[in-house]
């Protein structure tokens, strides 16, 4: 049995990621968030005390817990948490951005901070389509990646977050590599990189607003939206082994219980005020917002109604973000 929860009772993923950034300095913010640890690297030894691979392979670890974060080459350069966020704190002091939240994943293997840009963007003339511009800074302490910036938008009416789409970045003339920040020892170089990214973010969001306006003008039938939902969430459809045709005995789309329940919730979201305001009902824009609303509010819940931390993080950094991107790409193909 599916439990229906009222929209107002749900906490969005954006409010659950990490902790509030509390403090007047980078050091103070990290201390309050429990992220004020140092990271080091050292050779790896066998049980007999012999250095493995002549010291060319080392482990990265937290000094406070001795937790191994990753195995990397000996030339790998560590970026301390404080160094990573000092860049953003410098720009906050000049009121270019406002530090919102900070957190980590996998016991410190990756860290992130979310920051709010001062200007909002509005799609059309509808105040309910006003978006807060945001940017996430993330760094992989396990060697799996460098310091990156991830621009997002948050729809203020429902607190859904969009995600940057690789295909759209290329269309907008932006090289995804330009969203990376150098692991440079010079603070001035890292600040310049972030300033450049903030300019790119403003450009990206103006183009995002233009594309969103186009999605508002694309009308979709219920059946077309259902097909988008099925493709986005990868629901299994029961098919005939010989013909490959969908078996519709128990459901018109051959869905199993999980898919049926999720589809019911998405259809409910399509009729909510958040997805009908300003005449958007029945549009590709409504379809996209129903998907982001489901991912950010419903998809993060366990069966008992509590929040699953990995699902919360995935709304920006994992499968949830990829599903948003997939939906956006598919819906943009409907724009003539």
Could you give the topology of this structure?
Layout (H helix, E strand, L loop, with lengths): L18 E2 L5 H8 L5 E5 L13 E6 L5 E6 L7 H13 L4 E8 L4 E13 L7 E11 L6 E9 L4 E2 L4 H6 L8 E2 L5 H30 L5 H12 L23 H14 L13 H15 L10 H9 L1 H14 L4
Antiparallel strand pairs: 1-5, 2-3, 3-4, 5-6, 6-7, 7-8, 8-9, 8-10
Task: Provide structural commentary.
Strand 7 and strand 8 form a beta hairpin. The N terminus is likely disordered. The protein is built from nine helices and ten strands. The chain starts with 18 loop residues before the first strand and ends with a helix. It has three domains: 160 residues, no CATH class; 40 residues, no CATH class; 115 residues, no CATH class. The radius of gyration is 22 Å and the shape is globular.
Short note summarizing the structure:
The chain is α+β, with helices and mostly antiparallel strands and 336 residues long.
Q: Pick out the low-confidence regions.
A: 1-8
What structural category do the secondary elements indicate?
alpha+beta
- Percent range for β-strand residues: 15-25%
Element-by-element helix/strand order: EHEEEHEEEEEHEHHHHHH
Shape: globular
Query: Main beta sheet: strand number and arrangement?
Result: 7 strands, antiparallel
Number of domains: 3
If you compute it from the alpha carbons, what radius of gyration comes out, rounded to the nearest whole angstrom?
A: 22 Å
Number of DSSP-assigned strands: 10
The overall pLDDT, averaged over residues, is: 89
End-to-end CA span:
41 Å
* Continuous helix count: 9
The level of helicity is 25-40%
